[in-house]
Amino acid sequence: MDTAENSKGIISGDEPDKTPLMKRIAWAVLLVGAWWLVYCSLQPLADWLTYTLFGLSRTGHMGSAVAFFLFEAPKVLMLLTLIVFVVGIIRSYFTPERTRQILAGKRESVGNVLAAMLGIVTPFCSCSAVPLFMGFVQAGVPLGVTLSFLIAAPMINEIAVVLLFGMFGWKVALVYVVMGLIIAITSGLVIGRLKLERFVEPWVYEMQVAQIDAEVSPVPFTERIMAGRAAVVEIVLRVWPYVLAGIAVGAGIHGYVPEGFMASFMGKGAWWAVPAAVLLGVPMYSNAAGIIPIVHALLEKGAALGTVLAFMMAVIGLSLPEMIILRNVLKKQLIAVFVCVVATGIVIVGYLFNIIF
Asked: pLDDT by residue for the chain (357 residues), tens digit each?
């Protein structure tokens, strides 16, 4: 009797746990399926709206620009929402404290690779540069390893990867990620070997190192899903105006700039175009959401992929606001070395892209 009751209790006790899980899985499958159906319908819907409902000409400048915008805007926002949600879940595993734990005590070569890879998935940008830098240095993370992280975090973010994938395909997105990692790892190694710790502001080393609690309470996966949803709300709602503005500019270029116009000064034949694009991009500030749609339109008009990507990497990887923020903890000499090393890596990547693609 007890055994039967216990068995019955175990079974009845299991049911409340299984039912919600199955419901969540079913809802996830339905949502992904609906997302895919809508995504596949975007191109015919954009064409119908532009050429049937609005009555614009397929060969006219306005029709071409409007069709570009009506297709690219929802496509990019849908891709962005999906990837930000997934990355938001991944990011819930990497708090600043845990990131410091992972990097602390790692030797340079291994540490640079690990730091650059962590920079892709951790939720830190130029606004977090000073507190992160201080925390890493105080935790004993080598200077070069820290800078590998700070290079990779803004340059290889999920927005850049999503937009590159949506507009150019997985090959370009993959090569971009790989090249960005190479820049971050190599730059960190070079700066680390130069032994430039003396150009870190002394007060950074004088501050007391905060103790890091190694024990981290387990977080239920439902909370991680909530973190993914929160990331969508935070990031997508913040960048969508930049996405639409960038796509609007790109649509104007797509519709009104003649074919091949950009080839004369941003094409593969202009050897000086890549370093000029980097020099132009370093003092500017934008984000991937606003600049990649413009990159897409420029490519359609004859600009070389390596040239426009070098410009984009310089803008988002060597932004002027980040340099100003880092000046609080780094002396001018180290900032100058940082910019020169990273800019050189971006120039090399630009030339490689122009050769490969």
From this structure: 444 444 444 444 444 444 566 776 777 788 888 989 998 899 899 999 999 998 888 888 898 889 888 988 888 788 778 877 877 777 677 666 666 667 766 666 788 888 888 877 765 555 555 667 777 777 778 888 888 888 887 777 667 777 778 777 888 888 888 888 998 899 889 888 888 888 888 877 776 444 444 445 666 777 778 877 887 887 778 778 877 887 887 788 777 777 666 666 677 777 888 998 888 777 766 666 667 777 777 777 778 888 888 888 887 777 776 777 778 788 889 888 888 888 888 898 889 888 887
Residue 105's contacts (CB-CB under 8 Å, 6 or more residues apart) are 140
Tokens of 93: 């595993």
Q: How far is CA 61 from CA 42, 52, 56, 127, 195, in A?
A: 21, 16, 9, 40, 56
Backbone angles phi, psi at 193, to 5 degrees: -70, -20
Helices marked H in the chain: 2-40, 42-47, 61-91, 96-103, 108-121, 129-138, 143-155, 158-168, 170-193, 202-206, 221-231, 237-256, 263-266, 273-281, 288-300, 305-317, 320-326, 332-356
Q: What angle do CA 148, 227, 22 make, to 5 degrees?
A: 125
Neighbours of 53 (CB within 10 A): 8
Q: What is the pTM of this model?
A: 0.65
Cα–Cα dist 296/329, whole Å: 37
Query: Any idea what DSSP says for residue 128?
Result: G
CA distances from 252 to 65, 66, 78 (A): 6, 9, 22
Would you give the DSSP letter of residue 58?
Answer: T
On the CB side of 318, how many CA atoms lie within 13 Å of its CA? 29
Q: What is the spatial distance between Cα 164 and Cα 168, in angstroms, rounded to a whole number?
A: 5
Q: Does residue 305 contact residue 337 with C-beta atoms inside 8 Å?
A: no
Where along the chain do its domains lie?
96-221+241-356
Helix (H, G, I), strand (E, B) or coil at 277: helix
